[in-house]
Amino acid sequence: MSEKSNGKARVITGNEACAEGALAAGMRFFAGYPITPSSEIAEVLSAKLPKYGGVFLQMEDELGSIGAIIGASLTGAKTMTATSGPGFSLMQENLGYAVMTEVPCVIVNVMRGGPSTGLPTLPSQGDVMQARWGTHGDHQIIALAPFSVRETFDLTVRAFNLAEKYRTPVILLMDEIIGHVNEKVYLPSEDEINIFDRIRPTGSAEEYLPYEHTKSRVPAMADFGSGYRYHVTGLAHDETGFPTNKSTEINKLMDRLDQKITMHREDIIDVDEYMLEDAEIGILSYGSTARSVRHAVRLAREDGLKVGLMRLKTIWPFADEEIKKLSGKVKLWIVVEMNRGQIAHEVEWAVAGKIPVFKVNRVDGDPINPLQILEKIKELANV
Amino acid sequence: MTLKVKEKKDVEIEISEAWCKGCVICVDYCPHDVLIMERGKAKVANLAACTACMLCELHCPDFAIVVRDKSKE
Amino acid sequence: MFNYDQYLRITKFPLIWCPGCGDGIVLKSLVRAIDKLGIEKDSVCMVSGIGCASRLTGYVDFNTLHTTHGRAMTFATGVKMAKPDLHVIVITGDGDATAIGGNHYIHAARRNIDLTVILFNNHIYGMTGGQVSPTTPKGMLASTAPYGSMDHTFNISGLAQAAGASFVARASVHNGVQLENYIAKAIQNKGFSLVEAMSPCPTAYGRRNRLGAGVDMIEELKRDAVPYSKAKKMTPEELEGKVVTGIFINEEHPECRSEYQKIIDRFQKEK
Ligand SMILES: Cc1ncc(C[n+]2csc(CCOP(=O)(O)OP(=O)(O)O)c2C)c(N)n1
Ligand code: SF4
Ligand code: SF4
Ligand code: SF4
Ligand SMILES: [Mg+2]
User: Fold this and answer.
1) ipTM of the predicted structure?
2) Nearest CB partner across the interface for A225, out of C45, C74, C266
3) Is A314 within 8 Å of A173 (Cβ atoms)?
4) Mean pLDDT across the stretch A90-115?
5) Where are the domains of chain A?
6) Are C148 and C233 in contact (CB under 8 A)?
7) What's this model's pTM, rounded to 2 decimal places?
8) Which of C1, C8, C16, C218 has the most B C-beta neighbours within 10 Å, making it the best mutation to test the interface with B?
C-alpha cells in the first residue's frame, strides 16, 4: 500500500507518518500529553519541531493541550494535538469551543479499546460517535480515518487543509494498528503536496467582521497581533464576535456553522470504492478494519462472489448520499467495524429500509479477521 | 504667621447618568464632601471644595465619574 | 482625568457587573498600568476564563479571548509560545484559577512562562450565584455552604510563589494606585507574574454574609489591609482576618519561552 512518489523509500509507523504529514502541512505548534498508543507522535515532534522553528509543548493534561493549540492557532500557527480515548474524552469541552469560535486545529485520536482505561495497547474504533457528538450542543464536525501508513500522511495533510479552509477543528481518527504498524512508504516531496492556508482579511481593521456571514459561510480569520483587534468567545455571538441574546443573530450563527460544512460536503467527503462496479454485496468499512475487508473481498472474488468495499476516508460528515446511490445496486450492506455498530446505524439511516444492513463487529481488542468477514459474506450470499 | 490660602482649583466634574449605578463609592472616597447621592445617582454638590485629588475617579467601578483638572491642561 | 476610552470598547458599556462590584476598579487599574508602560494595543492579548471577572475581556480594545472555565492559562500559554512578542495578560477568578483551573495555574507558574495573571479574588463563585469557592473563609456562608464553609482556604499568592512564579503581589481595590503599580510591575517582569486583586462581590457574597454594600466591603478591605513589611513582624494570631498586601516576590529567573528559543536557535546556527 505504498503509492509511488518521488520521495525515497522509508519504513515508518502510522504515528511517524502522522507527525511527518503534519510538518509537511505546515504545522508548527504541537501541545500534547502522553498516552498509549499515540505517544510516538509527540515524541517525534518534540525532536523535530524546534528544527523547523516550531514549538513543542508537553502540557499538564489534555484539557491544557487542546487549550494551548487553540490559543496558538489564533496567532496564525497551524496547530495539532494527539491523544487516545481517555484524553479525547477530556478534550471534548474545548473541542466544542473550537467549533463555536471557528479556530482551525487538528486533533488526532489514535483509538484504543474503551470505555475508561480499557485496552491501552489494543485497537478499537469505539470513538467514532464520540468524535461526532462528544462535545455538547448541535454542531458539525469533520473526521477522517486513514487505513495505511502512507494514507495517514496524506490524510494528516488533508486534515490541516480542511481545518484551514473551513475554519474548524478536524479530527483524525487513527487506531492502534495504523498507529503502530510499520510500512514501507514513499513520502511525497514538497511540490507534490497541496497546501491550503486560512483566508486572512485584507480590508480595514475597522470594518473587519471576524464572524462574517460570507457566501462560502467561512469568515476570514485574522492573526492575533496583526492589527485586527477582535473578540473571541464561546458564548453565542454575532458577526462582530461579541455575545448576543438576539434569536435572529443566534439562528444566523447556528445556520452558518452548519452550512459551512454541509454546503461543502462534496469537497469534504472522500470515499474509496474497491471492486464495487459489479458488486451485489457491498461492504462498508474504514480505518485498519478496511484492510481485513479488502482481503476478504479478494478471497470472496476468488470464490466467484460479487463483493465490493466502500471505504470511508471521511467519516464525518457522513457519506449518506454516496451510500444511498449504491443501495439497490448492491443488494445488501455489511458494515464492518471494531465497535458494536456505531457506523452501521448511520448506514441504516442512509438506506432507510431500502436494502438490509448487516454487521460484523468486534470489541475485544483483536482486529477483525478476514475469515470472519468472509464467513459473513458466504452466509449472506446463500440467502 | 502667614495663612496659606489653598490655590483655587479650576475643576470640572462630569458624571454619566447612564453608567452610574449608584454604588456610593465616589461619595465615600471624597475627602471634601463634594459629592452626594440624589435619586440613586451620584451628583456634584460642592464643586468649589474639590481639590482634584482624583480618588473618586480612580475608584468609580463604572467609569461614570470624570474629574478634569483644568489647571493641568 | 485619565482617558480610558482609547482602551475600551465603549459601545459595550455599561459594564455587566453589579453596583458596587469591585471588578471595575481592577479594570481601571489595569488600563492605567498598560498606558503607563506605553504598550501598543495591538501587542496586548488578554485571555480570560469564565466568571464575572472573566467578562472583562469583552470591554477592552485588545486582542481578546474569552475561553472556557478554568482553562484561560492554557490558551494563554499557547498564544505566548506561538507569538512571544505579544504581552499576554490572563484575567481570572478565584474559582476559575484555583478550583477548576488549579492544575493549569500551578503548572503555568512552574514553567515561569511570561504571562501576567490578574486574579480577582472575591471569595466566591459570583457568576453562578454565590457557591462556595476555594477561597471562601472558614465559617462564611455560601449558597452551597448554608452552614458555613468548613474547608481550609487556598493562599492564592502563596500557591503561585511555591509553584515557581517570579513575581507575586497582592493588592486590593481599596487602593487603586497600588493596584496599578503592581500590575505595571507584573507586566514588566519577564516570567509568570501574579497580581491577586482583592475585589468585593456584594451581590453573591456580601449580602448573604451581611457585609453590607460594595462600598462597605471596600471600607472593610481598607481596615483589614496590612502591608507585607509590617505583616512580617506579626504573629499568625495577629494576622487572623487580615489581608496582607504587597510584593511577595520579584525575582527574575529562566522563562519558558526564552528557554525554548535557545533550543530553536541551536538548530538555526547549525544550518
Ligand atoms: C465546565 C464548567 N463548569 C461550571 C461552569 C459554571 N460556572 C461559570 S462561572 C463559575 C464560577 C466562577 O467563579 P470565579 O472564578 O470565582 O469567578 P467570579 O464569577 O467570582 O468572578 C462556574 C462554576 C462552567 N461555565 N463551566
Ligand atoms: S462610584 Fe461611580 S457608579 Fe458609583 S455612585 Fe459614584 S459615579 Fe456612580
Ligand atoms: S477629585 Fe477628590 S475632592 Fe474632587 S470630587 Fe473627587 S474625590 Fe472629591
Ligand atoms: S455577582 Fe458579584 S462578582 Fe459578579 S458582578 Fe455581581 S458583585 Fe461582581
Ligand atoms: Mg470569584
Assistant:
1) 0.98
2) C45
3) no
4) 98
5) 9-192, 272-380
6) no
7) 0.97
8) C1
